[in-house]
C-alpha cells in the first residue's frame, strides 16, 4: 500500500523525468543534428592577416603648395582563402554593383597567396550601402577605406605630374621581385612614374580576429604602413598656371582665326612652353596643350574617357615639351653662327651680300623674303634672320668638313636626350652622312649632297628637335656655353621634411667658345628683338629680351610650326623661355605668348601701375 507521502512525490518525479528527457533531446539536437554547423561556426572565429595600403608621397611646388595628395576612399576587396565558392561570390557582387568577373578571376589567379585582392576602387556611397546590406551573404568580402591619389588642381601640370593606375600584367612580371602585387597602384607617366620607387611607400599589415563571414571583430596587432617620400619641385605653381592660361588663350585665338581666314590650312594642333633657370637647368614651368585631368585615371579610367583621350587627333596625352620632334627652323642659325665664327673666322662686322637667294650646283635656295637686303654684316644677318648668309656659312662648313656643322649641333645637345627626369623624351635627329647611308635604301639617296648641309644651316630638312633641347641650347648662350640636365624635381623629403635626396644641378657639357663668339651671338639675338624680326612684339616692354624665332616648314601641305627661344633680361638673364606651336603657321604667333609670360614673371603690369601712381 502506497502511503500519502509517496503519492505526493510521484508528480514531482514525473516532472523531473520529463525535464531530464528534454535536456537529453536538446543535447542530441545540438551535438548530433546541429553539430557540424556549430563546428563550422566555432572554426569561423579565427585570425586574418590583411595588408594596409601605404599613402603615396605628396608632390609640392617650390613654394610648398601641394599639387598632388591623397584622400581616403572605399575599396571593395576580397580574401580568396576565405571564400568557399568564388564564382558564386563574384556573381553576387556583379549583381549588386556591377563587376568585371573575368578581370576579377584574373586578379585572383595572379595574386600572392594570403594577399588582399582589391576588385573595385573608389566605390560610390550607393554601392557601399548595397554591399553593407548584403554582407551576410558575402563571406571573404571586405570594404576598406584606403588612400587614393588626388590631383589637387585637376589639369594643372598634368603632363609633368603624370597619373597612376593599377599595375598591368607586364609591369607585374617585371616588378614582382620588388614587392608589387596584383591590384597595386603604380605610377604610369610623368613624375609619378619617374619617381615611383620614392613615392610608392611600403604597405603595412594588420592581424585581425574575424567571424565566420570574414567580418572584423577586433585588431590583434598592427604593422603600420610607411608613407612614400614627398617630391619638392622646381616648378612654380603660380607661374605654371599663368603659362598654361596664356598658351591656351593664344591657341584658342589662332583656332578662331583659322576659321575666318581661308589662307590658313588648319588651326594649331597644340603647343608647349618651357621656362627655366638658365644657370642650373631647373624648370620653373612646363606646359603642354591640349592637356587632360589625371584624376580621370584614379580608381580606373572609364572606357569612354580612355577612348576619347587616346583617339583625339590633337593627342592630349602627349607631352609636347619633351616628346615633340620637329625641325627648329631659324633657331638653328645660332648653331650655324657659332660654327661659322669658330671655324671660318666670321666676326660681327664680317660683310656679306644678299641678292635674295643663294645658288650653287644649279640649285637655288631662297630667303624667307623675296627681296634681297644687299650688303649686311653678320650681326645684321642674325637680327634679320637672313637665310642667304647662313646658306653660305652652311656650304663653307660642308666644304671644310661634311659633319662639322653637325658636331656643333651635338655640342649644344641636339640629337640626344637631355636626361630630364621624365620618361618618353624624344631623342631628335641631327642628320649626317652616316645617318643618310643607314636610313635610305637607294644608292643615290645615300649620298650626302651639299644641299643637305645648306638646308640644315637654317634648321630645315631632316633635323628634328624638341622644346627641351632648344631650351638647353638657348640657356647655353645665356650662361656662357654650359649644358645642364633639365630637372623638374629639386629634392626628395620624408614626412618630417628631412632631405632624402637633393638633386644637384648636373653639368652635361661645357663648350669651349671664344668670348667674341658668345658676345656676338648674344648681341645678335638681342638685336632680333630690338630692331630685327621681333622688334614690334617687345618694343613697349620696360625690359630687354634676347631671342630667336623659328618658322619650320612641315611639308605635306600643312602649316608651318612656330618657335621662339630666348632669355630675359638680355644683359643679365634670369629665365630662359622656349615656345612651340604645332602647325602654328608662323613664328610670329609665338611672340604674344612670350610677351605675356615675361609680363607675368616680372610683374611688369604691377610695376607700371605703381610708377603711374607715384
Q: How would you sum up the global shape?
A: elongated
Report the radius of gyration as a whole number of Å.
Answer: 35 Å
Strand % is 15-25%
CATH homologous superfamily label of the domain at 49-210 and 228-233: Penicillin-binding protein 2a (Domain 2)
Integer average pLDDT: 89
Helix/strand structural class: alpha+beta
Question: Could you tell me how far the N terminus lies from the C terminus, measured between alpha carbons in angstroms?
Answer: 134 Å
Number of helices: 23
Indicate the percent of residues in helices.
25-40%
Based on the structure given, which CATH architecture of the domain at 49-210 and 228-233 is correct? Alpha-Beta Complex
Domain Penicillin-binding protein dimerisation: 52-219
Organism: Orenia metallireducens
GO biological process, one term: cell wall organization
Subcellular location: Cell membrane; Membrane
Explain this structure.
Strands 2, 3, 4, 5, 10, 18 and 19 form a seven-stranded mixed beta sheet that branches. This protein has 614 residues and is α+β, with helices and mostly antiparallel strands. Helix 10 runs antiparallel to helix 22 and helix 13 crosses helix 16. The relative contact order is 0.11. The chain has a domain of 168 residues: Penicillin-binding protein 2a (Domain 2), CATH 3.90.1310.10. It is built from 23 helices and 23 strands. The C terminus is likely disordered.
